[in-house]
Amino acid sequence: MSRVGQIEKRTQQRIIKLFSKSLGYEYLGDWTDRDNSNIEPQLLTPWLKRQGYDDALISKALYQLDKAANDRSKTLYDRNKEVYQLLRYGVKVQPELGENTKTVKLIDWKNPQNNDFAIAEEVTVAAADVRAYGKRPDLVLYVNGIALGILELKRSTVSVAEGIRQNLDNQNIRFIEPFFSTIQIVMAGNDTEGLCYGVIKTLGEVLSEVEGDKFD
Predict the structure, then answer these.
(1) C-beta of residue 205 within 8 angstroms of C-beta of residue 196
(2) What pLDDT score does 207 carry?
(3) Which of 14, 54, 82, 92 is packed most tightly, with the most Cβ within 10 A?
(4) Number of C-beta neighbours around residue 79 at 10 A
(5) What's the rounded Cα separation, in Å, for the pair 6 and 156?
(6) What is the rounded CA–CA span in Å between residue 208 and residue 172?
(7) Rounded distance, CA 107 to CA 116, Å?
(8) Cα pseudo-dihedral 60, 77, 206, 122, rounded to 10
(9) Closest C-alpha among 216, 181, 185 to residue 203
(10) What local confidence, expressed as pLDDT, does residue 202 receive?
(11) What percent of the chain has pLDDT over 90?
(12) Is the pLDDT at 210 greater than 90, yes or no?
């Protein structure tokens, strides 16, 4: 059966099914009417507790992660880079004054199945500028409650370039740029052209290729 003209929602549901049924992601639901963040403590905290960290260490680790992700004195690139360092190597915290520093691992890289993988749809995020309007990424991928991936989907009759533009627009400082401080992969796709992906601020080059008919 032809997929041409298929509405985006149907494609979206198919992708959710792929992640939840085939890849084992937990489906978190439709997050349209919710106060959403790129760091969800109610998901991250329980996972950290299962790793054996006490409340004091978790609280300090969350503080440092949030501080790195929301340091507006730095560019999005620098914030994202610092967050990546914490994701990759852990957060170094001092339990009490005079005690040795301990490392709180936010992701279990050695045992991937030990992590909590989840997907949410229609993730509404408030704009950074109160005079601007918020955005709603189609799908957001979370690992241990930290948003690491965004996917914008378009119907098969709409160019994937529109999804790329939407991702780039969302990274505008007026809109939801802060949400991208933890994002490690940005994606856009449809049923006829496939999937484009990159990291923050890089999809402009892909857009040029798509619009220049270089997309394979």
Answers:
(1) no
(2) 57
(3) 82
(4) 23
(5) 6
(6) 18
(7) 9
(8) 40
(9) 185
(10) 82
(11) 81
(12) no
Per-residue pLDDT tens digits for 72-86: 999 999 999 999 999
Measured CA to CA, the distance from residue 163 to residue 193 in angstroms comes to 12
- Whether the pLDDT of residue 27 is over 90: the answer is yes
Give me the sign of the Cα torsion angle 94, 96, 100, 105: negative
Give the chain's length. 216
Overall pTM > 0.85: yes
Euclidean distance between CA atoms 16 and 170, whole angstroms: 22
How far apart CA 216 and CA 101 sit, in angstroms, is 50
Does 1 map to a domain? no
The answer to whether residue 77 sits within a structural domain is: yes
Q: Is residue 82 part of a domain?
A: yes
Indicate the DSSP class of residue 25: P
| Domain range enclosing 189 | 8-211
Which one, of 73, 39, 38, lies nearest residue 180 by Cα?
38
Q: Which residues pair with residue 190 across a beta bridge?
A: 194
Q: How many domains does the chain have?
A: 1
Asked if the structure places residue 2 within a domain, the reply is: no
DSSP assignment of 88-149, as one string?
Answer: HH-EEE-SSTTSPPEEE-SS-SS-GGGS-EEEEES--B--SSTTS--B--SEEEEETTEEEE
Tokens of 131: 């005079």
Average pLDDT over residues 156-162: 90
CA distances from residue 90 to 24, 61, 87, 172 in whole angstroms, order as listed: 25, 9, 6, 29
